[in-house]
Amino acid sequence: MHTKLDPWSSSEINDYSKLFEEFGISPFDNLLPEIPSPHMYMRRRVIFGHRDYEQIAEAMRIGAPFSVMDGFMPSGKVHLGHKMVMDQIIWHQEMGASAFVGIADREAFSVRGFSWQKCREIGVEEYILSLIALGFKPDGLIYFQSGCENVKDLAFELGARVNFSELSAIYGFSGETNLSHMISVATQAADILQPQLEEFGGPKPVVVPVGPDQDPHLRLTRGLAGKMSMFRVEERENANGGKYLSVRGKGAPKEALQELKKRIPGKVKLYEEHLDIIETPNYPFLERFGLQINQPEKKKYFTTEIEVGSKFVNEIKPPEFSEYEKYFVFKKIWKLTRKILEEIVAEVTAEFGGYAFIPPASTYHRFMSGLQGGKMSSSVPDSYIALTDDPKEGAKKVKRAKTGGCVTLEEQKKLGGKPDECSVFELMLFHLLGDDEELLEIRQECVSGTRMCGSCKQLAAEKMYEFLKDHQEKRELAREHLDEYKIIYKK
Ligand code: SF4
N or C: which terminus of the chain has fewer CB atoms within 10 Å of its end residue's CB? Predict the structure, then answer.
């Protein structure tokens, strides 16, 4: 059976690995070594997948501009599930991202039928106060979709590039779907692309941390990023099965094409099928962009064949490095060449008033389960902890939560517990214990039967009480300092 991803109904995904095959989401594990000081959710595999996060990891490593963007539909109480997303936005902001947070009131209006006033109240009282209390910095932008002219204009333009059949294939829309709902989908795509507008510094990698149910928005937006761009840098295949990079500009103005040709003098080819060694050239083409190739010892690097205009790099030396090293260096050159092309394309596009969107990246995190097992549901208050719950009530909910323990103490001592099926362990894993060692110890004690559920519940309840109390004090502070933040409201 195929997995259905629907952003508007609470999803429960039983087998996350299926998403890798079915939707082309890549596993996050392989990327972990490339991320400087990875977030707790990355280390603990709460974030299990991504699309194109390599570009974000690289931007963090080299200090290049990048953005994080996310949105919240103002539909009810802000809870620990929303905190997961907020934590990731704030972490990326700390890692150097410019941050954008959209309050999706257009979506709440069209899907839930909420008034604009109600959207504003919930947006501020629930989401914005908690976001700031958790550490969102004032240099980020927070906006209500209905008040953001950029987003509304861009949504309208995006709407011209998508038709009903595509929306219906991605979201399962039918003849019953109202028009505003469709517009809200274009608005979400505009939210995601907004950080790349000229006003915010132009094209750059943008990451959207989401649960897998939000992937349809990412798929739509990634497709639209390509369709809206004046030019596209693509990896293509030649007749021999080798890959090369090409720039295409379907529908671009003639003058823009001519300008592009001038700046990329001739063809840029980077073939993958021949591996030769060449002396590192003094590459003005790279220097122009302040880029340097990390040169291995002996000042040599590997590539296949690079032709930049009429300048052929052709000083071929006998191979001295292993195939692995060749592959590694080749990949580096490939990435650099692609980056340079994208920058030239972005320059020309901006001069001719077009768009040069880079398809957005995304990360996917596991859902929290309900405190009583099964799904979290906003209509069952005992299934989740709201960030505005009375701290004593929050602690009580932890004590009532379903564990992965056995029915009797004897059995548990003999067989051990099941932390992977335990809501209390999940709370500690996702939110309450920052220390990996301590968490691992609890896990081992649980599995080996030396830990009983009572002690976990006591520990988690105390931590929850402290967290909620502290968070709510910070929310009140945030309320006093709201006017120090850039927030765009509906006029
Ligand atoms: S001992 Fe702790 S981690 Fe293990 S099942 Fe009980 S509550 Fe969960």
Answer: N
